[in-house]
Fold these 3 entries.
Entry 1:
Amino acid sequence: MSATLSLDQLSAAVEAGEIDTVMTAVVDMQGRLMGKRFHAAHFLERAGAETHGCDYLLALDVEMTPVPGYASASWERGYGDYVHRPDLSTLRRAAWEPSSALVMCDLLDHHGEPVAVAPRNVLRRQVERARALGLEPMMATELEFFLFEESFEQLWDEGYRRMTPLVRWNNDYNLYGSSKEEAVMRPLRRALWESGVPVENTKGEAEAGQHEVNVRYGPAMETADHHAVVKTAVKQVAAAAGRSVTFMAKYATDRAGSSSHIHQSLWRDGRNAFLDRGAPHGMSELMRSYLAGLLAHADATTLFLAPFVNSYKRFTVGMFAPTKAVWSRDNRTAGYRVCGEDTGAIRVECRIGGADLNPYMALAALLAAGLDGIEKGLVLEEEMAGDMYRAEGARRIPATLRDAAEAARRSDMLRAAFGDEVVEHYHHAARWEIGEAERSVTDWDRRRGFERL
């Protein structure tokens, strides 16, 4: 049974009673899948060409609040529609839902032009930029999350105050410990594989109740699509088992955070263009310039790797989240780690991103920075070795969302790669997030000051 589907295969599956629902999905600013569930017969008859949805999907915060001040969508503009055009190359079975299929859609305006600020379109432009240089971006994300005993509904009703990790202790790589999570993880692996997502493995991670999903390295757009699908499937499979998960970058003060490390390389004519076996450490000049671009623009790209106020609470010494935007070989304390030295799998792993990132925007920002390094022939700085947490004078990752947002706003590289409209749009989103956080009274405020002040 094929997981990915042509329209003819979908039609046959509908006729056979195997599929009765098709989900159309666009990606919002937070990286979530938003769309509609169609009767499969209607999708085949009409919606397979295009459907429509409110343009406010790219002007909302996490709470689905319409945020004022966007140029692309507002009350003044009437919150009209965008065209959702199915990318039929992404049509697949959605094995985590009964009798369902899923297709990713691209966002177009009423003139048929791609919506500039739509995450999938932003990434596509950077992929096309690489291809114009004869290069194919190949990437992978490692996605971490926490799995809890309680259901989503229980935690909501209790104000998220008594979350119980399903495994009580750090079960990093521990097969016995992670066996306790298999009631969720085994059906997840099966559902993803049956849905055309080439999941390689799942594993216990380095904190109580933490887990990780790894999907096969592949083309950048495919990787971002798989990442978005995995997050949706994880939540639905957990919910079906009466459990809950979180992809917050940092859900508790005394726990490690959840990351989304991004592996990346550029290929030419079916070969890894980052590899030069005759060069030091097997790193080609192309790779060295790409990595130099990542480092030169590390401040500006952090907004898309850590897009929320909470994201910056993950950057904690000694908890495997980096604090320095430097490069090192096979060193998990550095923001940029070179892996696979002298092998065909040589690549750069960016360790800055959290599990809360939007994969399309994160991959696009890294590609933009790396390609700028190639186009300008940037020279790679010297490697740093040892414990980067203790490194003096090393380039630091921005400490707050405000710092990262301002770095992105000021970046000539991002403005040239994404366009002013995109940079201003996502800078505005960050400013709104900061304002919402600063005006909110938290449990910490009450515990600290209720009686003692």
Entry 2:
Amino acid sequence: MFQSSDFKPAKWLSNPHVQTMLAKFLNRNEIIPSINEVLELPDGDFVDLAWTEIPQANNTKPIIVLLHGLQGSKNSHYIKSMFKAIKQQGWIAVLIHFRGCSGKPNRLAHSYHSGYTYDIHYFTQQLKTRYQQCKLAIIGYSLGGNVLTKYLAEAKNSPYACATVICAPLHLASCSAKINSGSSKIYQKYLIDMLKQSTKEKIKLGLIQDISLNALKQLKTMRDFDNSVTAPLNNFTSAEHYYSESSGINVLNKIAQPCLIIHAEDDPFLSHEHITHIDYLPENITFEISTHGGHVGFLSTNITDKSLKPVYWLETRVPQFLQDYL
């Protein structure tokens, strides 16, 4: 079902760009301790995990899995924010770094994309085997939120008691167009520069041989990158083929778990009209829409705090939802 969010920013925080950029700026220097683990994958590659604590063999604390956004990591503001909130609940958090996002290149030519669920399937099986006595939940942000919808639709026997999808590009084609329009182009350049840099490193290492450094340099838009890099490295014929096959909006009705989807109408990364154009939602899915919030911002203020210091609303809303199932 669709419902209105109770998120309300202060007037000075209502601008979507303020929401998006200030959220990143506020805790840029905050350090949340984590414990790293390397998970070797069956195809010869690896992913790095970041735990708030390594569960003991007899652990019964709930474990919350986090999936970050495009080129995100354990240093992303929203991951640090949720790590802190999860620890305050007495739960354990673990972030799966998508391939190549933990500070070092992955070993294969392909890395990850918006519909790539192989690694979360494998990790979930490992998690289920290791900690059979623990309740599990999962949160996906932005690109990671779209990956999560794809995974949940595919995994009929998923062990996760519930899931939260935050600011996900569920309709990839329209979101690719959105970020290439108006003021959203600022974010596109930021993301494209990071994608090109990580791809450049893999070309120099000889991991990618079908794309030249000169051709990479010419790419200016997200669609350009997806058409020239993402699609061919992942067996798609074009950016359009990749978008149509990987968009989470096409499989929402196959999700069986209780799932909270959080979306802001003013998100500068996402196409609101296409994201919310859904004819049918199962009763287990709550699609919560706020007027404001930006992209993974959702900054509000505590009216009892005279300093009016911004607070991360997601730190409250997401654990509140998870508690009902954990």
Entry 3:
Amino acid sequence: MASDGFTTCLWFDGRAEEAAQHYISIFKNSRLGRIGRYTEAGPGPAGSVLTVEFEANGQKFVALNGGPEFTFNEAMSLQIHCDDQDEVDYYWSRLSEGGEEGPCGWLKDKFGVSWQVVPTVLIDMTTGSDPERAKRATEAMFSMKKLDIDALRKAYAGE
């Protein structure tokens, strides 16, 4: 059995191509792939976009125009691991534009997709061997929307 990994399928209501274009404009190492169209068999209008394949940061996705039956919620989110505050700021501003900022580095983009914009240093802080430092970093995170690396480091250090 041949396999080339897996592809995340995102269900949209008529906005699949717009979403794919939006995501490839934000993420490096991105490209648009094949576009599938509905045929006379339906259920969408013949010739309209059914699927759009795309890659964002090298991850494979398919945007599907499936209709209004299903919508996104926070039960599924995509994590972006950021090396520094500039990356956090970039992804936060681009993805939250037209969307909704949430707590603890979470946001919903204008399509309703949930994202976690996470500095990798936070993961190191909260999974380290010092439970008191991890607690302080976690408590600081709980007080934030967009994560602030300097404030997290200060909390971790007990400053």
